[in-house]
Amino acid sequence: MLTHRRRWLALAVLCLGELMIVLDGTVVNVALPSIRADLGFSEANLVWVVNAYMLTYGGFLLLGGRLGDLYGARRLFVGGIALFTLASLACGLAHTRELLIVARAVQGLGGAFVSAVALALMMSLFTEDAERAKAMGVYGFVCASGGSIGVLAGGLLTDGLGWHSIFLVNLPIGLAVAAFALKWLPPDRAPATRTPLDLGGAFTITGSLMLAVYAIVDGQRAGWASVQTLALAAGALALFAAFVAIERRAPAPLVPFALFRRRNVAAANVVAVLWSVSMFAWFFVIALYLQLVLGWSALHVGLAFLPANLVMAACSLGLSAMLVMRLGQRTTLTLGLALSTAGLGLFVLAPAQGEFIAHVLPGMLLLGLGCGIAFNPLLLAAMDGVPEAEAGLASGVVNTAFMMGGAVGLAALVSLAAMRTEGALAAGAAETAALHAGYRLALAIGAGCSLLAALAGAWFMPRRRTPAAVPVATGHP
Fold it and tell me: pTM of this prediction?
């Protein structure tokens, strides 16, 4: 039986590891102009610095969750941290475009193994409702704020030490997380039975998603009706059909479709896919708007995200848990998503000569408030009622939904923004005005996805209230 102190130390290790993983999904965003200039990326190919990470991350989350269930969550967590740290070293030393993209893909693989089991480990550490609500508030803050903290960290490091430093800083952190994980995380328990791994399912769904994103990213250059784009789309559909067929016949499928018969799990994953598009629009597109339209430095862009981080921390560590206990998961989730939609809507209205106080700060505050409130109930809903033997799988499923929605959504947003920008340039608009037009379109689509997520949560999420006898969590251990 773990002591109270050791449980919270274990949670700190899980959160630090997860924060490092989440940060690397967005820490590169403000460094992208520097990376592009240094390594000679084109604007269309630059998105692969982000997508190479997200695709392997999202593609292997399901396999990682199943590996954790079968062979030990702590073992996979430590192994994932080690792989991620080594890949970070390769990113920091990269001197070619190809090496950086490959190293980012390996980073995503290590990150997938860490994230796939971190939430499951946290749920097994805290079994009482009140303590679990506190722990989920802390974990939810890490997940929700990691992206915007990454933008801040990326700005500070890029301006101060260069873009290589955003990867090299992971080395001491990764070593510390691995050492503390071996010391404080509970030892793995051997499963009662061994079941075969569904490697066919893992590789078919990953290949399907990669082909789909490549078709979207390169669709504007090659032509949306070109042979290449249509062939890639057909290949993606064929692999997805193969995945479904494999899952229906596999003795131990990667994704047992019976899992989605739980209404809360199905609804949480639908919301995760839609919301992820708006989240990546926030981290990626707004960072580019601040740099390339408003002309801010990487450091100033990072600092612009700081108010959102502070608000998100306050909500995730206190307000969100309190609202879940009093209002239930559905109402709290819908409220948070509605506030996020309003925040992105303000950025859609922001002008090409925007100012921080009038046009940036209000949207940042609403986004921080909305995300800080919504992440906790989303994670709780995705894991609610799932047996411990399938906790890793359920964790992997919701993380996959979020990251794959973000990867495909970001690819689509970047392509549509580039199309609008090129059209504006062809019509004689100045470069800054053309970029602004493209980013506004991307942000409008992101806001629309956030609104759809709010409506899906309100309509499909089951009405569930936490018993009044359970004390309201404060968010502090």
Answer: 0.75
